[in-house]
Design brief:
By secondary structure, this protein is an alpha+beta fold. The protein is built from four helices and four strands, in the order H-H-E-H-E-E-H-E. Strand 2 and strand 3 form a beta hairpin. The radius of gyration is 20 Å and the shape is elongated. The relative contact order is 0.20. The structure holds nickel (II) ion. The site of nickel (II) ion (NI) has 4 residues, from strand 2.
């Protein structure tokens, strides 16, 4: 990494600065600079997601594979959007329960739609989508 570093000063109200330093300590950042860099990246990623740019999605589904045709339905939805599915991992947790983790790429709104349709399938007990982006 030979990226040029830019330095600039920031003025903060004392209370905000103190609370920021407490957060830095709690989250184990080595410096204010590293904490600020992460905050900026986080905001840029949120902005990318909001602007519907290319994003990445991590979706987990927890379901009972004994539910009628559920596994087939979940697989069909993924095949319908195969160009957006990077990978999927299926774990047989116990006799009944399956955990599936699906990685997706594409526009945030489209990833959200696919995730919603999978989570809404009858028999899916729990599912959650996490969206991220490169933040560049
Ligand atoms: Ni299974």
């Amino acid at each position: 990494m030979s990226e040029n570093l830019i330095r600039f000063g920031i003025s903060l109200p004392e209370n905000l600065s103190r609370r920021f330093d407490q957060l830095i300590a709690r989250r184990q950042y080595a410096s204010r600079s590293e904490a600020l860099r992460d905050l900026i990246r986080k905001t840029l990623i949120e902005d990318e997601i909001a602007s519907d740019a290319e994003t990445l999605g991590v979706l987990h589904l927890l379901y009972d594979h004994h539910k009628h045709e559920l596994s087939d339905k979940l697989t069909t939805v993924q095949h319908d959007h195969h160009e957006m599915i990077i990978s999927s991992t299926h774990v047989h947790l116990d006799h009944h329960n399956c955990l599936e983790v699906i990685l997706l790429k594409g526009k945030a709104s489209e990833i959200q739609q696919i995730a919603d349709s999978l989570i809404a399938e009858k028999g899916v007990q729990n599912g959650k989508l996490y969206l991220t982006a490169k933040g560049e």
